[in-house]
Amino acid sequence: xxxxxxxxxxRLLPSLAVLALVSVVSACAQQQIAPEQPRVEAPRxxxxxxxxxxxxxPPTEVEDGYRRVALLVPRSGRAADVGQALLNAxxxxxxxxxxxxxxxxxxxxxxxxxGARAAMDKALSEGAxxxxxxxxxDNVRAVAPQAQAAGVNVVSFSTDTSAAADNxxxxxLLLSEQAEALVRFARGQNMDRFAVLxxxxxxGRAMADALRDVTARANAAVVQVEYFNPGGAPDEAxxxxxxxxxxxxxxxxxxxxxxxxxxxVAQRALQRLQQIQGSGDIGFQALLLPxxxxxxxxxxxxxxxYGVRPEQVQYMGTMLWNDDRRLGQEPxxxxxxxxxxxxxxxxxxxxxxxxxxxxxxxxxxxxGYDATALAAVLAKRNETAPFDARALTNPEGFVGVDGLxxxxxxxxxxxxxxxxxxxxxxxxVVAPAPESFxxxxxx
Length: 443
Fold this sequence. Notes:
The protein has 12 helices and 18 strands. It has helices at 80-97, 113-125, 137-150, 175-188, 202-217, 235-242, 244-259, 264-274, 293-305, 343-357, 363-379, 389-392, and strands at residues 9-12, 19-24, 30-32, 67-73, 102-108, 130-132, 153-156, 168-170, 193-199, 221-228, 286-288, 314-316, 337-340, 398-400, 403-407, 413-416, 418-423, 426-431. The two termini are 41 Å apart.
């Protein structure tokens, strides 16, 4: 039965590198639905990928002309609420983008590797040509051998790059991409010395490592990292951060650690640190605070007391800050910056989701929408293999509700984030998200 004529659609524009979300208003004219309407971009034909193509899938019993895409998410278990949000967002994308040949087939992974394997078995037996999900890295690793054997690509929602494989992509919001955006902004402000004050959690340590890696490639350096117990008093860590002798000792420790590593990135970071000498003052120009909520406000209030003043040091956050509308209530955080998707398209999606489901979506729901929209767009191609690696890794990329993104041939994702600055009245864009990737510009 045909869908209602008023539904929103993406249309493929062969002469452009974009997919625009539009509404049909007449037989000969189309326009955007609303000024803040997000755009999702459609690819030009990309050159063949260097990444190895999976073996062609074996024949299935489902050969009826439909494009069948499996959605593997936890509908039960520890993350059922997140799985439901991903399914909600995916259904929105189907309504917005897909044609009548597109079939989204959800399967419950239960949030476990065994559940993911069972869901993958069922998806493949029912003719899935592309798999979206699973959510957790261990689930992704569990289904990778099945997908590879069947010649089916997987676009997972994980943020763990180690889960990427020959036919497995990770599309989550990577910490490395957030660090890239922050360092790019800071280097544009002539800042090259960074410090990190983070909770001693897996997230805090991973964000510190990501910043180290990115600065080493950007002719900059992380000169000091201090950790505090999550939920505990951060005073001692702040004292170490601001004590000149402690700072110099931390700098020397980092030099020794880097000197012991054969990694080329570590050696570049060491060369940069060798140029930095302790001056008796705070030795950094930008401070990363990968924390949120009340703990973040308490830390921000303490930092000026210990001499880390926001007028002298650029406070920086992560995407954890994007969900906090009260950051500007803490005076010390006014002027701090953080990476985020373009607020225009992101806010539009959030409002639509809230209207449809009566709740605010978690950030991962955006990824579920974009992944499904990508699949729906590629499904419209009149080709026998619409979801092959060449199509998925189109170098022009796509623009979805989380902004510009493209899947790399190594299975990771590259994104273009905006930089937002905290004000007393909310967050304002100070560096817009890029509209194209450098290597694709002018192509």
